[in-house]
Structures are given as C-alpha cells and as structure tokens.
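Team,

Forwarding the record for the chain on the shared tracking sheet. I've put the sequence and predicted structure together so nobody has to dig through attachments.
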Amino acid sequence: MAVATSASRGLRSLLRRRLVGSGVPHLSFRPVSSAKDVAASQAKEHDYESLKVTKAGDHVLHVQINRPEKRNAMNRAFWREMVECFTKIAEDSHCRAVVLSGAGQMFTSGIDFMDMAGELLQPQGDDTARVSWNLRHLITRYQETFNVLEKCPKPVIAAIHGGCIGGGVDLISACDIRYCAQDAWFQVKEVDIGLAADVGTLQRLPRIIGNQSLVNELAFTARKMMADEALSSGLVSRVFQDHESVLAAAFTLASEISSKSPVAVQGTKINLLYSRDHSVAEGLNYMAAWNMSMLQTQDIPKLIQALLEKKDPKSVTFSKL
C-alpha cells in the first residue's frame, strides 16, 4: 500500500510539473453531418488508376475504390496501388483516420477475372515445384494488399454499400471499423469459382464474428449475408439508411477519432492487434513495454489541463505523429 501511495504521489507530481506553463491552443471542431459537407480535395501525393484519394476534413483521408464502370472490380492496378496508398498513409504524419468506400453502385464485385486471368491461370514455371513457388509468391503478394490496412497505424473505417463480394470481404475484414448501408450485402464467393479464399477472410472473419458455425456456412455455401444479419453477427457495428448516410456517419466518426491524441489512438490500434494474436499475459507485457515510453507524451498533461479548466478535450491541439 505504501508503495502504491508513493507511486500515486509521484505521478501527480510529474503531471503538475509538466502542466506548469503549458498552453492549450484552441481548435475549432465541427462534426460532419453529411457527406456533402466534406470539402473534399484531391490528395496530390496520391495519384492512382484504381483508387481516388481525397482530403475529407482535418486529418482525415477518403480512399475510394474508383472503378464504378466495372463495379469496382479489383484489377492488377488495384492490388498494387492499395499497398502503395496505405504505405504512404502510414507514413503521413498529418493523417489520423481513413474512410474507405466504393464509388458508384456498389462497394466491390471482387476480383476482376478478365484482367487477372493471365496471372492467375497461367503461372510461370517449367515444373510443378517452380509453378507452385511462383503461385505462392503471387498469393503472398496479394495478401499484402490487405495486410497493409492492419499495418497502417491509422484507424481505417469501411463504409459499405451495395455488394461486397469475394475479395471485398477480405478487404473489409482487415479494416478496424465497418459501417454499412441498408442495401449492403456480403458474399464469400470463392467456392463458387473453385477455390478457397486466400487473402484474409478465412483467417480474420472467425475472429470478427466469433461464430465458427456461421463463418463455415458462409464460406462453404457462398450465400449472401444481408445488412441486418451482418449487424446481428458483429461483422458491422452500425447500419444506415443509404450510401449517403453511411458515408456521412463514417466521416463524422473519422473526425471524432482524429480529434483525439494520435499517440493514444495509434498506440491503441497497435496494441489491440497485438493482443488479438497473443495471450493475455503477452498482451499485458507488450502494453507495459509500449507505455513505458508513450506515457511520457505531452498529450497527457495537455488533456488533463483542459479537463481541469473544464474545456472541451477537442480544443486541444496535438503535434503530428
């Protein structure tokens, strides 16, 4: 007890010292009430064939799958550009949250087999071992297309409308938060084309839904899951009336997240993912090692001072990360 009391006094003393003389600048914050309210402008460092990246308010980027004439099918450019895009976002100190959506009538129809057929059906190699080796290299490269969403320390919010088919389920499974419109539907389509899903659905979906029987049913049959079932099963956290309203809600959520300390938010994402794949004891040990440095951030005394002065925490300005 004496040790705990001493530690508590030491923490209070540290906070008092770090609060002295620190100013709290003000930041005007207004939640996004409509997708039309977002003053989107092209992010000049992002120029792609299959994606459109725009700035959607302070510290928020909007990434759209942008092949509406092809129902946002995932062509060769998409698999390459997603890695490039989210690698840049991970290193963008100004960005704090991302909204991911699909342009046009649906989120995505999955793999563009017309564009990908040559690569998938005619693998290079002069014997079975070499063909297999090259196929493995190809599959792991495609897996990285969605792994980058998890590796990106910025929270990624999927805003889904219409169909989310095949590779689309792999994609949203790697996102941190999933919202959908009432017209959304989801389909693990791979068995209908003679293969097992190989870029994330079978690994991530059971952890998301927590119902192995339901995951097995979806993966074995390729049946459609509609929005209400997606909500009740835990695949999405909220359902909205239409495409416009789900986008508006996703932008509002992204703005709320981006108003928080980036040290706190990004550290939370990294530790949530680590704990998902490790035991409780390992997760706690990693968390202790993480916070032994991150607790020294100036964001903590800034926020405590704002609370003591009865100011809105959103009024605090945080340094880039």
